[in-house]
What does this fold into?
Amino acid sequence: MDNKVPLKKISLPISVLYDAILINIATILAFLVRFGGRIPAVNFRAYLEVVPWITLIRVSTFYFMGLYEEDEEADAFDIFYSVFLAVSTSSIIIIALSFYLRTLPFPRTVFVISWAFNILLISGWHSYLFYIKQKKAPPKRFLVIGGSKEGKKVMEEIRRRSFPKGQVVGWIKGERERKDELVDLRKIVREKKASEVIIVDSNLSREKILDIVFHSQAEGLNIWIVPGLYELMMGKVEITHLGDIPLMRLKSEPLTRKDRAVKRGVDIAFSLPILLLFTPLILLISIIIKIDSKGPVLYKQKRVGLKGKIYNVYKFRSMHKDAEVETGPMLAKRDDERITRLGNFLRKLHLDELPQFFNILKGEMSLVGPRPERPVFVEEFKRNVPGYWRRFVVKPGITGLAQLYGGYETSAENKLKYDLAYINNWSLGMDLNIFFMSTEIILRGRR
It folds into this structure.
């Protein structure tokens, strides 16, 4: 292996390749155990016929159950438990399919024995891979924010035992003692090259804590908070620990790789049938737009997407041609004079947004997420609404919480609150609930 190639870039394909090899080694070992050190040719030929499918099912199950995701807080037991669940789940799937299709033409005792070997071999390999990653990983560089008593205890734990590869690079004692330090947080983070921020001062105002969180996330830092009873009473939180000190970890990436894969699959599974089903309606709307007013059928406009990337969003044109020539860029209003008669009807039923399903198939948008905004308004909101950039950590969507409960007059700050609530609490169930609630609203004709 070329040591110049970063391990992070090759770990996934290498891990998948080794898993595929180990899956089959486990089966060979199971044959040897079952048949007293020999492998009957008839049974083994039968296995070779189904080995691609067994390997594919296992590796796919490993992927969707998050076995290839990095978790800095994992330990040997976490890895073993994850492998146990993934191997057991894939075994249930294979056995169920074998009974249904009758395509497992060798003793099932081989398969049961291979289940145990799979757990041992796969967990051993993943534990080794995790150990190598941890060994090569640079030390965590902690910036501690908090008063003298709490801050000292946290730093002692970091230096003593809880983070063997961690080091404290800075200590901001708090708002009351040195106010200027919090103001220059970004500058301190860059000078100290911090990778982690731990907030330990419960006396900081909520506004100040939000300011620290937003600035830290903008710098790509991991954020930890020593919670008080107030934070713990607010609902479900992810709790870890530093020695005997409880910690809340704020995730910079709200969706795991598995979550993104599932969300993308749902986007495609819904968008493609919708476009096929509504093809006649799309053609009819295109013809009527041409008859109703001058201008192109489709309206293409720059929007800000995932990670701030600019892309073209597609909509049926619902305004008069060159509607912003005299006014310049401006947000649409209810009963906007620039909207055509047909456009008003299309907007009421949200039919003007049908072409955005092409954006979804291209991977630029999702069914559910924060609504995409134009670059000029994004820059304005980023200046005036703290934390506005946070809405770009997920793909924009055709609908979202802000569209369910907000309206044209809802402020950017209130829309952001809905967007953050969605981002921080994402689940597949939430996406489906929002989508079907939005469908009901469209059918009722409510904007």
